[in-house]
Write a structure and sequence with these properties.
Layout lengths: L11 H6 L6 H5 L4 H6 L3 H7 L2 H12 L13 H10 L4 H9 L1 H8 L10 H17 L1 H10 L3 H7 L4 H12 L4 H13 L2 H8 L6 H24 L8 H6 L2 H11 L6 H14 L27 H9 L1 H9 L7 E2 L4 E2 L4 H17 L2 H10 L1 H11 L4 H15 L21 H8 L3 H17 L8 H16 L4 H9 L3 H12 L1 H9 L19 H4 L6 H11 L4 H6 L33 H20 L18 H20 L5 H10 L11
Antiparallel strand pairs: 1-2
Helix pairs in contact: 5-6, 6-9, 9-10, 9-12, 12-15, 14-15, 15-18, 17-18, 17-19, 18-21, 20-21, 21-24, 23-24, 24-27, 25-28, 27-28, 29-30, 34-36
């Protein structure tokens, strides 16, 4: 056999290493140098651990390659050097982490002027990150001794790899005490204040974005760490600094700077949105909507943050009315003058977060400003902006599902407190939600009747209308919603009732129609099985389960589980945990009362008894144990139909011997099933 031969040929690297004059570049030109390094090739590791080789590897990472080189291979050696140094070989990690000269050479990359080469910066960040992870005490002690480290991080924060390095410094150190020391050190260096200062109109867009993302990740990491180590005696100093009143005021002043820089506004609002999060984000930046009356919050919102935002709600409202100027945008269906813009979209997201927290003072301010009415106007004005439509729908759903308002002092949570739902009344009375839905629906139907295009917000409008209907019937505010609908003018109320039973009902029916046809599809095959004849119901649980699977909404739970419940994607320990909820709905009962099955059983028994009566000594023993196959119900019924045709054929050949008949049934024994359940 082939495996008796030794197929493991020695690596060419071993041959090269036998030469005394071999160079580092010669080894790096070999295709399998990385595999040999990770496989702990002793000769290769010893060669790489030479001082001159380690210095050359670090030099490849931090020094700009010659522009005279071909662009295709210009970054070949820097890339391979990075991979060799981050191959997680303990001997290499020890030498890099313990030799001051190598660390100084690596650190010198930060001394370059901005902007840094993004590719070399990624190599530098990757090497230093693995050193922080494997040698945390030595590396942190080295960085603390470099008094300009935080200054250089702030200087190069516009380079994404440097931002990643800062976050690695917070996440790669796992022991609580060393991590707390790093947090205290960074707080003493005023890292939070200096990042907030970057989110200013005078800075460029890359610095805005990376500083904002850094602060958002610091908030989330700090909150997650506080949940994991709940008995920690020391609070997170970075989060505490970020939640201070003066820091929030500085953020807000950057937003409302007279220059109105959209990049700075959006970046600052992103930080405020993270501070207002009461739950971890689920997927792609979305937060699960949950009525504020329910006590399911994971994080608490600091009162100083909420108070600072509340004091500037009127300024946020002005941003909705007069956002930063944007040029006219031409689209395939028309001209946007002005377009919605990222500023207004993020202001609406901020309002939805405030509605999620649901405090009476903030709600009252929103009512006085009529901010809900403004975003509702935008919903109908910008027909094709589904990002906007989604946020407005979230706001309306939160108002409909939020009967309670929080008024407690201190930290804002989702605990119950008394309060009248003035915001819901404002939505129905001042904002005329019902009337505007009816008007928009009728306008869309008229436009479509004239051959026009269906409005882009109709799907969201249908969901909003269904949300109102649900709130009227079963929602936490059902009594108030019913009262508000009764107080509508009689003509509007009648139109709404007609709309719910006709247009909305028909739309819902059309949206929930089975995507799989229930009519039998005829094929050209002669062996086709008629499901009606086999008794396989068209409305069976299997088909219903499949239809439900197709029509289920794209919830976060569905997205997490979609396509990964198959055993080949699951860990072996988790296979037993796969959900079988739908299996309980499937009817596995075998129907034993069908005349075809009974006739088949009796014919089989009769044939065998007749053979026994013939008493042929040369025949096989009819009582010999034989394997009897039990097939599924659909095959059994199909087999029954086939047997009926066989019996009719046998009746036409009555002159044949009974031996032939017995052999015929013996040859088809794999197709027959005997139902012994009787």
């Amino acid at each position: 056999m082939f495996w008796k031969f030794d197929l493991h040929s020695s690596s060419h690297i071993d041959t090269l290493l036998e030469r005394e004059d071999v160079t580092l570049k010669e080894l790096m030109d070999e295709e399998d140098v990385l595999q040999e390094c990770k496989a702990q090739n002793r000769k290769l590791i010893e060669f790489l651990l030479k001082s001159e080789c380690l210095e050359d590897l670090v030099s490849f990472i931090i020094e700009e390659p010659s522009q005279d080189m071909d662009e295709k291979i210009r970054y070949k050696y820097p890339n391979i050097s990075c991979e060799l140094l981050t191959s997680d070989v303990s001997q290499i990690n020890d030498r890099l982490g313990e030799e001051e000269s190598l660390l100084l050479k690596l650190y010198s990359f930060l001394l370059n002027e901005s902007p840094l080469n993004p590719l070399l910066a990624s190599f530098f960040s990757k090497v230093l990150s693995i050193l922080i992870s494997r040698k945390p005490e030595q590396i942190v002690d080295f960085l603390k001794r470099k008094h300009d480290f935080v200054d250089l991080i702030i200087k190069h924060i516009g380079t994404s790899a440097i931002m990643d390095l800062l976050l690695r410094l917070l996440t790669c150190i796992e022991p609580p005490q060393p991590r707390q020391e790093v947090l205290n050190w960074l707080n003493e260096e005023r890292i939070i204040q200096r990042l907030v200062e970057i989110v200013h109109p005078s800075q460029d867009e890359d610095r805005h974005s990376n500083a904002s993302q850094s602060l958002c990740e610091i908030i989330r990491l700090s909150r997650d760490q506080m949940l994991q180590v709940q008995n920690s005696s020391e609070p997170d100093p970075l989060l505490a600094s970020l939640e201070k009143q003066e820091i929030i005021e500085q953020l807000l002043s950057n937003i409302f700077h007279k220059e109105k820089n959209e990049s700075a506004i959006v970046s600052a609002i992103q930080i405020l949105l993270t501070l207002l999060e009461t739950r971890r984000q689920t997927f792609e930046g979305h937060i699960e909507i949950c009525p504020p009356g329910m006590s399911n919050s994971t994080y608490s919102v600091n009162k100083s943050v909420l108070e600072a935002i509340k004091a500037r709600l009127s300024s946020f409202h002005e941003l909705l009315l007069e956002p930063p100027k944007k040029s006219v945008m031409k689209t395939t269906w028309g001209v946007l003058d002005p377009p919605v813009g990222n500023t207004r979209l993020n202001v609406i997201r901020l309002i939805s977060s405030l509605l999620q927290i649901n405090t009476s003072s903030v709600n009252q301010e929103l009512i006085e400003l009529n901010s809900i009415g403004v975003i509702l106007d935008m919903f109908f004005k910008y027909t094709w902006n589904n990002f906007l439509h989604t946020q407005v729908e979230i706001c309306i759903a939160l108002i409909l599902a939020s009967p309670l308002e929080n008024t407690e002092n201190g930290t804002i949570t989702d605990q119950e407190s008394s309060g009248d739902n003035l915001l819901l009344k404002h939505l129905f009375l001042k904002c005329r939600l019902i009337e505007r839905i009816l008007e928009a629906w009728e306008m869309n139907e008229k436009k479509q009747a004239e051959g026009g295009r269906r409005h882009g917000y109709m799907g969201h409008l249908t969901r909003i209308a269904n949300c109102i209907v649900h709130s009227t019937d079963k929602g936490p505010n059902s009594t108030l919603v019913q009262q508000l609908i009764k107080e509508l003018p009689e003509e509007v109320r009648e139109r709404w009732e007609t709309f719910c039973t006709s247009s909305l009902g028909e739309t819902n029916k059309r949206n929930t129609v089975d995507l799989v046809t229930t009519c039998h599809i005829h094929s050209s095959s002669d062996d086709e099985i008629d499901f009606k004849e086999t008794g396989f119901s068209q409305d069976s649980s299997l088909q219903q389960a499949f239809s439900d699977y197709q029509m289920q909404q794209m919830t976060s739970n569905f997205i997490d589980q979609f396509g990964f419940n198959d055993e080949k994607f699951a860990d072996q320990d988790d296979i037993g945990n796969v959900s079988f909820d739908r299996v309980s709905d499937i009817n596995f009962t075998l129907n034993t009362n069908e005349s075809g099955n009974i006739a088949l059983f009796e014919a089989c028994c009769k044939e065998r008894i007749q053979q026994f009566d013939d008493g042929g000594s040369d025949e096989e023993d009819i009582w010999e144990e034989k394997h009897i196959a039990f097939a599924p119900e659909s095959q059994r019924r199909s087999s029954s139909g086939s047997t009926d045709s066989e019996e009719s054929t046998d009746s036409e050949e009555e002159d044949g011997t009974k031996q032939d008949l017995f052999e015929s049934h013996t040859n088809t024994e794999d197709k027959m099933e005997v139902d012994l359940s009787e």
